[in-house]
Structure formats: structure tokens, C-alpha cells
Protein: Aminotransferase class V-fold PLP-dependent enzyme
Amino acid sequence: MKQHIDDTSRAYFPAKGAQWEEVKQRLAAFKDRDIGQAQGRLNVYCHQGTPELQTIRDEAYTMFSHGNAMLGGFMEGSGTMEAEVLRMALEILNGAENGIGFITTGGTESIFCAMHAAREWALVNRPVPGTPEIITPYSAHAAFDKACHFLGMNIVRVALRDDLYADVAAMEAAVTENTIAIMGSAPCWPYGLIDPITEIAAVAMRHNLWMHVDACVGGYINPWLERLGYDIPTFDFRVPGVRSMSADLHKHGYAAKPCSTVLYSSSDAETYHYVPVDNWPIGEYRTAGMVGSRPAGSIATAWAVMNVLGEEGYVEMARQCMAVKERLVEGIEKIEDLKCLKNDSTMIYFRSETLDMMTIMGGLSERGYFPFGVFNPPMLQLVPEPTSDEVINDYLRTLAEVATGVRNGTITSTALARYT
Ligand SMILES: Cc1ncc(COP(=O)(O)O)c(C=O)c1O
Structure:
């Protein structure tokens, strides 16, 4: 990642502190230099929802900005708040009857925790002769590679079907005596497609494997799309064999970052989730996940947003996201040479047979947009949010201008292009 240090020849840490008012102004200047999220110019990784939700997040975070959620066991108020968020999460994903969950700092940590639990479970329930391995579709998030790296496991990414969904038969064929876990995404980040979770879970049951569903993006929007009548295949704890799920409250849950959930179908998973430590001067030490101290502020935002929106509010947010998606897809497909890839979520992916997508990204970046792309196959990615006609029209106008420029050779720079 680029480190934006303006002047490397000077020291930055001040010997003497400045007035807060002055420091605040400098913070505001940093904020101004960021690409405008409110104007829809940052199209991924934001999940802001509406301006009202931003205000709720700001106020709720401030009320708990002092708090350390690691102390939830001792703090009756924030401990109850966290337990209620987890209970709501399990209710939403149909795991409340027997399940348990933990709040983590993000999808990556939730995936790490689930893979750790899988490894510990396998020690007892599926001992393997060699290095434990997990099987994922090629489209699984990079967090699985990171988890395997930290946990001393191997990841086997299996090629996808031609339509970019997980190839379940090929995944089953990849199972070896060292396989301990298998997973599917709902949806995957690179293509927005919901893998055939029921079929993958059936493989898990046939081979006694841990089954994880990565619903970091979909966990808190698929249920509402289902209510709205979209064709969302069953992906949650209703699917027999699913043992764990990652679902991010800081994405479509509209909580402040960092806030995710790792959920288990059975409270027995507690044994595999925790890393008990007592052999140090402080005695027993048990934390919710990989990290120690955690922000109570972001948990407060999750609790607040979940209570302000309720099911009705979330369904309405999902409806608005889909309405924005429909308008954007319609507009993108009207631009010569651009084509959208159908997917199962609110995300948009578009590609071209003739125009270089890196140059399209370069052109959008030069015009103040912050595009993200997929490398294989080359595509651009958008995550629509409820937004104004002005924002939608400005994006479509800019994209059309860039496509024309790339086609006629007046836009050639890929300098600012980037992939997620
Ligand atoms: C499907 C999926 N899984 C996991 C992650 C990782 O989440 P985080 O960035 O919160 O660690 C992402 C992030 O976009 C994702 O899309």
C-alpha cells in the first residue's frame, strides 16, 4: 500500500502538542483529500447506507468510543449489548436455536476463527496424517489463504465451472485424507455469485468435513433479498452440515468498521473456538477471537443500526440497493462495448470484449472515481448503495465518456488502475 507521506525530509512526531482546534482542522483537511464517498465516487468497501445511518453510527460510536469490548464479561451494559447483537445475528441466519457467535474485527478475522475452530475440531473428529488442508472454490476470499498461512494449513483452490460458480464435483474429487474443511461463499467477492451451498455441505457430510459458509457480503442482505422475492438459494444454518459462517455487520449490516460475526451452528463449537490461556502471570485469559482489545464503539453502532432498522428497515435498504443496481446495469449495458455479468447479489460486474478494462479504470481514476476491478476475467466491480439520481447519472456519464476515450485512443493511461 502506498504510504502518503507528503514530505519525507522532515520529522512528523511533534515535540510539543498543538491545540485541538488546529489539529481538528488538519484532520478535516485529510478527510477532504479522500475520494468523496458521499458523492458515490468510492464504489466499493464503503457500505454507508444512508446519511441517517451515518449519523446514528457517529452518535452510537461516540457513546462507546471509550469502551473495550474485551471487558464485555465484566461490563454489564456493553456485554449485554454484544450478546444481543449476536442473538439477532443468529436469528437472522437461522442459527439461534443451538448456535453461538462471536463479534470480530472483520471478515478476515471471522474466517480465521472459523478455520481455527475447524482445525481444532479435526484434531478430535477427523485426525489427518499430514498437513491439514481446506478445499475452496477458486473464487474464495484471500482471507482463507491468510488463515491457512497463520494456522499451518494448506489451501486447495479448485477451478470453477464455466459459469464461475463452484464446481462441486471437482471439489469432492479434491478431497484427500488430509482434508479437514470445505467452504462456499454466499456470495463470493470476485463475481457476486452464491456457490451451491447445499451441495457443498452434502460433500462435507459425506466425507466428515467441517463446512463453512463465507457470507461476509451476503449474511446481512441475502435474507432481505429472499423476502423481496429474489431467487436466493438457501445458504445459512438451515442447510444441513453447515457448521460455521462469517457474516460482516460492517458491510450490509451498516455498522461502523470493524465489526463482523463468526457464528457456529452448535454451542459445542465453543470448545474449538477459544484458545484457553492460563499459564502466564495474569491467569485465565479468554478473548472472543484472534485479537485482544476490541472497540465497543463499533458494536454499539451495530446494535443501534439493527434496532433502528429492524427487519422492515433492512428489507427497504435491500430494495433500494437493488433499485440502484437495476438503474446502473441498465445504463452500463447501454454503453457500447460494455456488458454486465449476472450475479446473485447487489453487486455489479462489467466487462468488455474489446476495451481494455485497466484503461477504463485508469480513465475513471483520472476523473475522480475510485474503481475496483477483478483480474480474472478482467472486470470492473461496483457495490451499489441507496443513492441519488445525480450520483447515478454522473457515474454513467463519466463511464460513457471513458469508454469512448478508450475506444478512440484518447484515454490510454492505466496508471491509477487497481484490483481488489
Ligand atoms: C466474501 C468476503 N469474505 C471475506 C472478506 C474479508 O472481509 P474484511 O475486509 O472485513 O476482513 C470480504 C471482503 O470484502 C469478502 O467480500
DSSP finds twelve helices and eleven strands in the chain.
